[in-house]
TrEMBL record:
<dbReference type="GO" id="GO:0003676">
    <property type="term" value="F:nucleic acid binding"/>
</dbReference>
<keyword id="KW-0479">Metal-binding</keyword>
<dbReference type="InterPro" id="IPR005162">
    <property type="entry name" value="Retrotrans_gag_dom"/>
</dbReference>
<keyword id="KW-0863">Zinc-finger</keyword>
<dbReference type="InterPro" id="IPR036875">
    <property type="entry name" value="Znf_CCHC_sf"/>
</dbReference>
<dbReference type="InterPro" id="IPR001878">
    <property type="entry name" value="Znf_CCHC"/>
</dbReference>
<keyword id="KW-0862">Zinc</keyword>
<dbReference type="Pfam" id="PF03732">
    <property type="entry name" value="Retrotrans_gag"/>
</dbReference>
<dbReference type="InterPro" id="IPR032567">
    <property type="entry name" value="RTL1-rel"/>
</dbReference>
<dbReference type="GO" id="GO:0008270">
    <property type="term" value="F:zinc ion binding"/>
</dbReference>
<protein>
    <recommendedName>
        <fullName>CCHC-type domain-containing protein</fullName>
    </recommendedName>
</protein>
<feature type="domain" description="CCHC-type">
    <location>
        <begin position="280"/>
        <end position="295"/>
    </location>
</feature>
Amino acid sequence: MDPAEQEEIRSALDQHRQALLQLQASVQQISAHLSAMPPIGSRGSNAGAAALAPPLPAPTPAYRPLPLNPPDRFDGNPTKCRGFLAQCALVFRLHPETFFCPQDKIAFIVSWLTGRALEWATALLDCGAPEVQDYDLFLGKFKGVFCRPVVGQDSAFRLSSIHQGRRSVQDYAIDFQVTAAETHWNDEVLIFLFRQGLSEEIKDRLVNMPQLGSTLEEVISQVLELDIRICQRSAERSRTPILKAPRLSPIRSFDSDQPMEVARTQLTPEERERRQREGRCMYCGRLGHFKAACPASYSSLRCS
């Protein structure tokens, strides 16, 4: 069916629905007015009572369905099949007056298909398969082709393989709860697996906690609060400057015959060559001794 024709059909159905709702409101007003009137035999004697009759109720406002965003187009990705069908089912549930016919539901789903999924639906429409006339058959066929089967063992394996790693607890908890919803296990087992997947740092901190909750939601809430406190404390440590005491060098007193600034200067290559040529001390520059026996060297210094 052409999308333009589908839109025309939907518009006509909406107009009929609005007309029916207005007619229903008018009938309710007439019924309320008749019930407020006195009996025919007592109209003359109860003329004053008729004036005290309650006013007519306000007309019932026309029903306006909740606006919903359309589902994302489905291209046949098995990981997105369940979410796509859930969005379509929500539209059908909130708009029963529009999708009272099974073919309308099928047409709505097909109109939001693309890629391989659209090719599959087009093949069914072209050959006139019975699935295009029965919504339940079409839905079962659709799930069998595109939806990944949820097997208990597969879900258990994926649940036990989820670990926090370097992620935040909140990110890890979201993945864990999404997979846990497919297992239908009790909270005791889920709490055990959730704690097993936490990082080593969080596990060490949990040892000092007095008691954890009895449900998975309570445990996740407690661990999230603990993770927030750890992050806040790490931020505080990074902002606190670490003060180091200055290192003090020992104070030495030197003899008066020690050359000034000798300890903080280095000989130039020319000066070194001159002293070697003339046989002078490499430390003080005097004649008559070498550096190893220099009386002014550090080995001859006295500490005060």
